[in-house]
Amino acid sequence: MAKIEASVQIHAPLDKVWDIVSDIDNEPKFWKGTKEVRNISKEDNHIIREVTIAFKDSKCMQEVTIFPKEKINILFTKGIISGTKTITVQPQDDLIQLSAVWDIKLSGMMGMFTGMVKKHVKKGTEDALQFIKQVAEESN
To answer: Which domain holds residue 116?
Structure first.
């Protein structure tokens, strides 16, 4: 498994950061590795969806659980990626600590490329967090 961690401090209100992060249908705008999102079902804070990722335009199934103003857990249930991605927002004084933690591997024969893909996922995560920071702080 590849564990990838990144975080950023944002000078913006929790509600503003949460509004951006929790708009998971808009994920491709911030997360360049996510090309398309198609929701299959939604019940309360639990969503089943199909996501097309940039790696060979692969489709992955995900179960997303939203814990309002705290975190979003994403479980990859089918496809080229297996594992989890967790996005957490934590107020710290007048800042918001936004973190993303991946614990993933590529499935089947693609597993041998996990290390190579880890580099791209880390860069994409850092870029996404910086873009979220920029948008959240713009009109602050």
So the answer is: 2-138
Strands 59-67 and 2-10: unpaired
Beta bridge partners of 90: 97
pTM: 0.92
State the first-to-last Cα distance of the chain, in angstroms, to the nearest integer. Answer: 38
Q: State pLDDT tens for residues 20-56.
A: 999 999 999 999 889 999 999 999 999 999 999 887 7
Distance CA 61, CA 39 (A): 10
CATH number, domain at 129? 3.30.530.20
Q: Specify the number of domains making up the chain.
A: 1
**Longest Cα–Cα distance in the chain:** 47
Token pair 């564990």 in the structure block, residue: 3
**Structure-block tokens of residue 114:** 């996990």
CA angle 45, 76, 130 (to 5 degrees): 75
pLDDT at position 114: 75
* Residue 94 pLDDT class (50, 70, 90 cuts): confident
- Two structure tokens written together for 35: 């090309």
